[in-house]
Amino acid sequence: MADVGEVLMSVLSTIRVPKPGDRVHKDECALSFSSPESEGGLYVCMNSFLGFGSQYVDRHHARTGQRAYFHITRTRKTKEDDNNSGSGHPPKKKPTRLAIGIEGGFDVEQEQYEEDVKVVILPDRQEVTSEDLGTMPDVVRERVSLSMAGIMAADSVSHTLQVQQWDGEVRQESRHAADLKQLDNGVKIPPSGWRCDVCDLQENIWMNLTDGKVLCGRRYFDGSGGNNHALLHFQETGYPLAVKLGTITPDGADVYSYDEDDMVLDSKLPEHLAHFGINMMTMEKTERTMTELEIAVNQRVGEWEVIQESGTTLRPMFGPGLTGMKNLGNSCYLNSVMQVLFTVPDFQSKYVSNIDKIIDEAPSDPTQDFKTQGDQIGIAPQMFKALVGRGHPEFSTNRQQDAQEFLLHFINMVERNCRSGSNPSEAFRFLVEERIVCQQSQKAKYTQRVDYIVQLPVPMDQATNTGEGLMGYSEAERRREEGDSSAPTVRAQIPFTACMAALSEPEILTDFWSSAVQTKTTATKTTRFASFPDHLVIQIKKFTFGLDWVPKKLDVSIDVPDTLDLSALLATGQQPGEELLPEVAPPPLMTPDVEVKGILGSHGNEEDDSLYSPLLSPVLDDSTVSQLCEMGFPLEACRKAVYYTGNTGIDAAMNWIMSHMDDPDFAAPLVLPGCSSGAGTTPTESLSEEHLATIVSMGFSRDQATKALRATSNVLDRAVDWIFSHLDDLESMDVSEGGRSAAESEGGRDPPPGPRVRDGPGKYELFAFISHMGTSTMCGHYVCHIKKDQQWVIFNDQKVCASEKPPKDLGYLYFYRRVAE
């Protein structure tokens, strides 16, 4: 074996010193979840700074010829028992601060490690320690020492992605505090007995620090709180700062900046309060601070302990398919979804069974490859989270997210990355048939669309404990808001059959424009399954809006069954003797002073202008659009809502928004009927080859994909939605080999044209469910339960245990698989 010093000299040109901007992967293997704590440690390439576990470093050496690797191993230190604790485990302190990982906050265990580092040269695995370098030539010692020190000092990529601690109470000085304008209007505020000047509410009362106006605060997600009068006052006046009156003490108070949209510090608060006759030094706290309210929410016993099975001793489980995933800072939604997806055979065969092929075909930087990172299911998925969230305004952050939205986002990424070969998302894909019947003409219209999730409504009026339970639930909520920790947890009990009935019952459309009678009339819409997927996902619509359009979460218990038969919801298609509605678009709204003209379309001619695009300007009620925008909806969605409801008012527009929030083109610009192209586009404009390939991969022909993209201004999401809404129009066109034959359809049914969907009996069994704890999808915690070999297992981030009492009635997303007949 050659002398190690000579070997180092021969590979010295491949050893680099990390520079600012280099991505150093020293915490996680690029091809697995191996880390320095894993058996064999982690090998960091001293040229590319990619990390590899002991089982993959030889593969990287053989592929690249790289020989020098920086080897890191970490061994966990044993914890010393607390001498003051009889059991060695001191009692957990109740959190007093809205924070994670710092004194007074929610406790996060920090492990301590001993670290060992050295240089390893492949293929003979010759080792070089820092001490060994002292005997080597200066040029070798200097270069290798600098490289080792640089790797050790560099922030790892995972460190920049992971939240080590979070403090929700760290507040910044408001930019308005120093020069806040205060009106000399003679207003003096008493030290107690405050009421909202508008609604007389006596809780959650805020005083504006500019004019002394006393008003109620915002309404919370669960419907409690105020009536938004303090916020409305800011919108009318622009006065930015308000103080919560019941929180004033000699030490400070809650101050909110509406302009900065955050809790802030006001260094001149005593002076600002004295202006309105309030002596801060004599005030006492009479209401819980915003921090205390949020801590109370995060400690809510009823839902959190039941879902996490906190009251029982759970037996840890280990082995294949039983590996937990670390929480990277509000990543429990990702952990829960991925644990469930990788119990589905399609995802296992795509990303696990083909592991050798995937790794052999991985690019030079596998951390940026979707297939490679999708293969990784293990300990701490920093690279995977960074990749799937890249470019997304929400999933790229460390904020909590909606598991249902992430599931759809991930399925969309799978669709885009599986243009050839097997596509595991087909396991969830199914077709929905919508039948609309005009009540005046009794003529019908049939459309089909693709979907991946069944959204199940929750009919609160069908609760079985109405007489006692709902009153008890309301009373318990009121007592909890008042700080009564002994208040019981009471929730509405909704039969699953009532939810299914609400899904299948006809929906009344009051503003339906009927092409048969050429005017708006009433219609009924019925939704049925045009195909049954191999795996069915059901979302319980717990997050909804109250009568005042304030978002809230429904605290309900639903007796979700272990087996499900949806055969009765199979679509039947056009009935014998049933007439269809003519395919005529409704007339667009237009300004009275604009002459209705047409411009020659690509298929029109001077004698027949039926395909002309009208040059019309829609007249929209600006006040209605403004009201919708103030609720937080996108401008273009608000414009479409007002347009498609014919300027009939805020209620109709809001109903339209609620019915179309999940549309792919919800926030896309308004395109008038008859205008198949957006401004500046023509049917002959070049189309994106990437968009064409994506649609073709879903089972459509290139001609069909071209037609869809031209009809939607070359916008992919709108084109996919368009193509599934115009399947009848595409029947005359060639369907690609993705379409099914009649022989392949269950029971000889005619296959839906176009998309590649699987079909079979509509009988299912429950195999997993994801539960959410908290008052909003933007906060709280997710866990999942998965049935493994007839044993329910709870996956609570990295904790994996046998489930004793799986709370199937409190789930948010339910996963069923088809029962083979």
From TrEMBL:
Identify the stretch(es) annotated as Disordered. Answer: 73-97, 735-758
Give UniProt keywords alphabetically.
Hydrolase, Metal-binding, Protease, Repeat, Thiol protease, Ubl conjugation pathway, Zinc, Zinc-finger
> What residues does the UBA domain cover?
619-660, 686-726
**GO biological process entries:** protein deubiquitination; proteolysis
- Catalytic residues, per the record, are 332, 781
Which Gene Ontology molecular function entries are recorded, alphabetically?
Answer: cysteine-type deubiquitinase activity; zinc ion binding
Q: Which InterPro entries match?
A: Papain-like_cys_pep_sf (IPR038765), Peptidase_C19_UCH (IPR001394), Ub_carboxyl-term_hydrolase (IPR050185), UBA (IPR015940), UBA-like_sf (IPR009060), Ubiquitinyl_hydrolase (IPR016652), UBP13_Znf-UBP_var (IPR041432), USP (IPR028889)
EC? Answer: 3.4.19.12
Which residue ranges does the record assign to the UBP-type domain? 172-280
Task: Provide the residue positions that the database annotates as binding substrate.
Answer: 206, 218-221, 256, 258, 261
Give the USP domain ranges: 323-819
* Reaction(s) catalysed (UniProt annotation): Thiol-dependent hydrolysis of ester, thioester, amide, peptide and isopeptide bonds formed by the C-terminal Gly of ubiquitin (a 76-residue protein attached to proteins as an intracellular targeting signal)
Q: Which residues bind Zn(2+)?
A: 196, 199, 216, 229
Q: What class of enzyme is it?
A: hydrolase
Recorded superkingdom: Eukaryota
The UniProt similarity line reads: Belongs to the peptidase C19 family.
- Its protein name is Ubiquitin carboxyl-terminal hydrolase
State the organism of origin.
Answer: Dicentrarchus labrax (European seabass)
Record lineage: Eukaryota, Metazoa, Chordata, Craniata, Vertebrata
